[in-house]
Amino acid sequence: MPAWTDLLRDIPDFPKPGILFKDITPVLADAEAFAGAIAAMAEPWRGVALDAVVGIEARGFILGAALARELDVGFVPVRKPGKLPGHTLSLEYGLEYGRDRLEIHADAMPAGARVIVIDDVLATGGTLKAGVQLVEQQGAVVVGTGVLVELGFLHARDAWEHVAPLHAAAVY
Ligand code: AMP
């Protein structure tokens, strides 16, 4: 049986030249690999008191929702602008080129809810960090963060001080 990491696929020059894209779709497509990946993401949070898993659009939804079921808690989406129908809180953050924005329902969780924030890949860390800040603005407590894959050579951890603990199921 191949390890789930064997099914991660590198796609060079996607979505633009110079980016080595970590494609998780072959992992998702294989039942055992998907289960193994979710088990690896769940491992540090088993036995930790949690109320919800927060996932960042879009691949953070796939992994976050599966992780929420694995940990037997609810799932809360953090979305791109204009997608959530209710009253939202919004946070603008810097990307490598330009800026982007994430939104959460203002009433998504009760104040003090204990959550972890999930995305698929940690590159510069800007997206996950913005997700953490938005969830904290909403009033929930970020117990930790998790990704399936950390691009260690981008050294996002070097600037990760004072952000919630970070768990990566695999580091490249
Ligand atoms: P970051 O630079 O950590 O804010 O990453 C931005 C977003 O783009 C994250 O949600 C990642 O899922 C995605 N991303 C960035 N770099 C890659 C990559 N090399 N492979 C796959 N996804 C990536």
Summarize the structure.
This protein is an alpha/beta fold and 172 residues long. The chain has one domain: Rossmann fold.
Key attributes of the depicted protein:
about 170 residues; alpha/beta; Rossmann fold; 5-stranded parallel sheet; two-stranded antiparallel ribbon; 4 helices; 9 strands; about 25% helix; binds adenosine monophosphate
Report on this structure.
By secondary structure, the protein is α/β, with parallel strands linked by helices. It has a single domain, classed as Rossmann fold, CATH 3.40.50. The chain has helices at residues 25-29, 31-42, 59-71, 126-138, and strands at residues 9-12, 20-23, 52-56, 74-78, 88-94, 99-105, 114-122, 141-150, 166-171. The strands form three sheets. Strands 4-3-7-8-9 form a five-stranded parallel sheet, with helices on both faces. A two-stranded antiparallel sheet has the order 1-2. A two-stranded antiparallel ribbon has the order 5-6. Strand 7, helix 4 and strand 8 (141-150) form a beta-alpha-beta unit. The longest helix is centred in the middle third of the chain and has 13 residues, at 59-71. 35% of the residues are buried. Residues 19-22, 59, 119-127, 151 line the site of adenosine monophosphate (AMP).
